[in-house]
Each structure stands twice: as C-alpha cells, then as structure tokens.
Write a structure and sequence with these properties.
This protein is 31% helix and 20% strand. By secondary structure, the protein is an alpha/beta fold. The protein is globular and about 40 Å long.
C-alpha cells in the first residue's frame, strides 16, 4: 500500500508526511499498478457486529491475525484500515460503530497511543463509547530490531 500512498501524495498539492517502518510488509502482495487512494478515506477490510477495530499502517496485518483469533471465540469484528491519520475518516468510523452491537472501539498503532488512539478518543469524548488504545507508551524508544522492541 506504500506505493499507492506515494503515488497519491504526488498528486496532492500540499505537504505530506508518510510514516513507514523498516522491513517488509507482511500479508501484502506487490501490485504492479499504481493507484490513487481516496484522500483521507479508510477502507473496510472485514465486517462484523461485535467490535470495531481501527488500525493504521504496519498494524493492519496483526489486527487481521487478532480477528482470526477472536472469531474462534465467536467475536466478529469490523476492521478499518484507516490509511490516513489526518484527515481522520470520522464518517467511516461513526458509520461502522453504529452497525456494532456494542459501542466498543479498539485502536491499534505502531506509535505512541496519543496519535490514532488520542484522535479517536477526542471524537467520542462526549459519548458513551468504550475505547481501548493499543500502541507504544509515551517514552523514548531505543533503536534496534523491531521484534525485540515489540517484546519490550
């Protein structure tokens, strides 16, 4: 998806920041064609009624793996690949939350939880929505092997 993000960014007449991790993408096949992504729009990868999971970047694949485990417990989740942190696709998140049986959102990011998690919590701050943010603690992160850092 990084190739499509770069291609999309070339067409935007404004500054763009694209964050990507070291290494290769898991569960991703290379697409020989370049496509423009709808600016500021997320995509629904899986639809379910029990839980809404909003993931971004390299955490989309682990979210897919978690959903497989949840399905073994008869918990069926919707997964949004958010793609853009700013502008945040609030319309899509609200739409999918309305379809859920329970007002619960899990955000997953490979960043400090005040990024995606903080943005979603701000949107729903005056509503009765249970939000769990999974990400890195707000502290200095050493450089090193990705898997070792995740274990810490």
């Amino acid at each position: 998806e990084l190739q499509h993000m770069l291609y999309t960014a070339l067409d935007l007449e404004k500054p763009v920041a694209i964050r990507y991790p070291r290494g290769e993408g898991k569960g991703i096949n290379f697409d020989p064609d370049f496509k423009k992504l709808p600016y500021g729009k997320g995509e629904i990868l899986i639809s379910g009624k029990d839980l809404l999971i909003v993931a971004i970047g390299s955490m989309v694949y682990p979210a897919l793996e978690a959903i497989k485990q949840l399905e073994k417990e008869n918990i069926y989740s919707t997964l949004i690949n958010l793609r853009f942190l700013k502008p945040l696709d609030e319309v899509l998140i609200r739409e999918k939350l309305k379809e859920s049986v329970h007002p619960r959102i899990v955000t997953i990011e490979e960043n400090v939880v005040s990024g995606l998690g903080g943005a979603v919590k701000e949107i729903f701050s005056k509503e009765k929505v249970e939000i769990l943010s999974i990400g890195l603690p707000d502290q200095f992160v050493e450089q090193g092997e990705i898997e070792l850092l995740k274990e810490e």
